[in-house]
Amino acid sequence: MKKSAFLLFCFMNAFGLSAQNVVSKTFAKTFQLGAENEFIFDSFDSVQVIQTENVHQVRLMLFVDGYNLSPEMMKSLTEAGRYLIKTQTMDAQLYISLPFMKNNIVANSTKIIEKHHFVLYAPKNTIVTRNSSTAKIN
Predict the structure, then answer these.
(1) What is the rounded CA–CA span in Å between residue 123 and residue 132?
(2) In this model, does residue 17 exceed pLDDT 50?
(3) Contact 57, 31 (CB under 8 A)
(4) What is the pTM of this model?
(5) Do residues 83 and 76 touch, judged by C-beta distance below 8 A?
(6) Which end of the chain has the lower number of beta carbons within 10 A, N or C?
(7) Residue 90 Ramachandran class (φ > 0 left, ψ -120 to 50 alpha, else beta)
(8) pLDDT tens digits for 29-49?
(9) Of all helices (H) and strands (E), which one includes residue 105?
C-alpha cells in the first residue's frame, strides 16, 4: 500500500510540474500608416483586441504562450523567424502579416501547442480589414 501511494504521489508531482511548464514571450512592432488610414491585418483566427490611441501609428503587440516548449525551443523558434511580423504596402494600404505562424510545428513527434493573443493600437478613424471583415475605429 505504501509503495502504490508513493508511486501515485510521484506520478501526480511529475504530471503537475510538466503541466505548469509554460514559456511566454511578447513581441511588439510599430508601423506608420499611409495617408488613407487603412490597413489589412492577416490574423488567422486568433484572439484580437483593437484599442484606440491618439497616435499616427499602428502598434501590434503579440503575446505567445508555449505550453510544451522549453525556453531554448522558444528562443530557437524566435531566431528562426516564427514570430516575424511582416509589412508591405498594397494599393495604398498597409498589409500586416505573420506568415510563419500559420504552419504547425512538430518537435520530437509532439505538436507544439501555442496560444496567441494580439493587441492592436491604432489611431481613431482607422479602417481595419481583418479576415474579410472590415471595422472602423472611432
Answers:
(1) 21
(2) no
(3) yes
(4) 0.72
(5) no
(6) N
(7) beta
(8) 988 877 767 777 776 556 576
(9) none
d(CA 118, CA 45): 11
Q: Compute φ and ψ for 11, nearest 5 degrees.
A: -60, -45
DSSP state of 112: P
β-sheet bridge partners, residue 30 = 59
pLDDT attached to residue 28: 92
**For residue 66, what is its C-alpha cell?**
508555449
The residue written with cell numbers 486568433 in the block is: 46
Mention every residue, 6+ apart, whose C-beta is less than 8 A from residue 23: 65, 66, 69, 70, 71, 73, 74
Residue 39, pLDDT score: 78
Handedness of CA 54, 59, 60, 63 (dihedral sign): negative
Q: What angle do CA 101, 106, 111 make, to 5 degrees?
A: 90
As given in the structure block, the three cell numbers for residue 51 are: 484599442
* Secondary structure element (H or E) that encloses residue 15, with its range: helix 2-19
Mean pLDDT of 91-109: 83
Question: Of the candidates 23, 105, 32, 28, which has an alpha carbon nearest to the alpha carbon of residue 65?
Answer: 23
